[in-house]
Amino acid sequence: MRKILGIGNALVDIMTSIENDEILGRLELPKGSMTLVDKFRSMEVKEATKNFRQNIASGGSAANTIHGISKLGTMSGYIGSIGNDETGDFFEKDMQNAGVKTFLIRRETVTGTAVALVSPDSERTFATHLGAAVELSAEDLTEDQFRDYDLLYLEGYLIYNKALVEKACELAQRNGMEIALDLASYNVVESQRGDFRDIITRYVDILFANEEEAKAYTGLDPEQAMGKISEEVKISVIKTGSKGSLVKMDEEIIKIESVPVVCMDTTGAGDLYAAGFLYGYLNDQPLGKCGTLGSLLASQVIELMGARIPEHRWQGINEKVSGVINR
Prior knowledge:
Layout: E1 4-7, E2 11-17, H1 22-26, E3 34-36, H2 39-48, E4 53-59, H3 61-71, E5 76-83, H4 86-97, E6 101-107, E7 111-118, E8 124-131, H5 143-146, E9 151-155, H6 162-174, E10 178-182, H7 186-191, H8 193-203, E11 206-210, H9 211-218, H10 222-229, E12 235-239, E13 245-249, E14 252-256, H11 269-282, H12 287-302, H13 314-326
Parallel strand pairs: 1-5, 1-9, 2-7, 3-8, 5-6, 9-10, 10-11, 11-12
Antiparallel strand pairs: 2-4, 7-8, 12-13, 13-14
Helix pairs in contact: 3-11, 9-10, 11-12, 12-13
């Protein structure tokens, strides 16, 4: 079985259910976006939302994907930066308990947190204080970390440190790895479009985007965006929410249906879609089945609050995954 290595912002998520979107306006957080905040702004958001229903889980986009694919049985590794604190201990233990080999650099800065404000329509808005996560640098990456892996998975939020992304991609290519990237958030794409295009055209084999991210990157609607993106990568994947997803390789476009469920919270849907898709890909499944596995994993997480699927559900999920692969 081929192995996957992920790199991302190691964060702990504070999942917060809000009664309406009024507080998003008060906090000046664009609905559906990921907004980077400093520690003082993070404290302000936490104070303003402390009376809402909350739960805490380790998170970060790439970490969610790597956690999920490891629970499916794939050998996985993860590189990140955390604080030398209890929050960092919580993050590390959670990843290792899922079977992930961790390459975590400890810092004096506090572990990063992401306050996820979940609206009544299940849309989520992030106020993210990266903390120690942002201190991950190109100098932290070594040849040995990459040597045993076949695919590198990067979250788009790392684009703010382009030198880190370039070093990771260079090490991956030097070790014969394929590279997958998720565009992460439409506002990140809008602000860093040029850097994304440079990285994508030079290094990326598989690109994941949702409708808003694809439009921010290309200025086009999903099917047209897919055509544009497929000129730059081997496999393009555009997630279209309840309508499913589109997958393209060469001239073939495959439409993947979503799995109908009652949606509680969309946090982690894209991350777990990538986990299912890449699990199939690393196990040499046809692209249609890869997309179906992505939809299956996404459906499992949106039924819940937060970006992690609880332990008691994984046996049933693995049985469904085997059913898809064997049919």
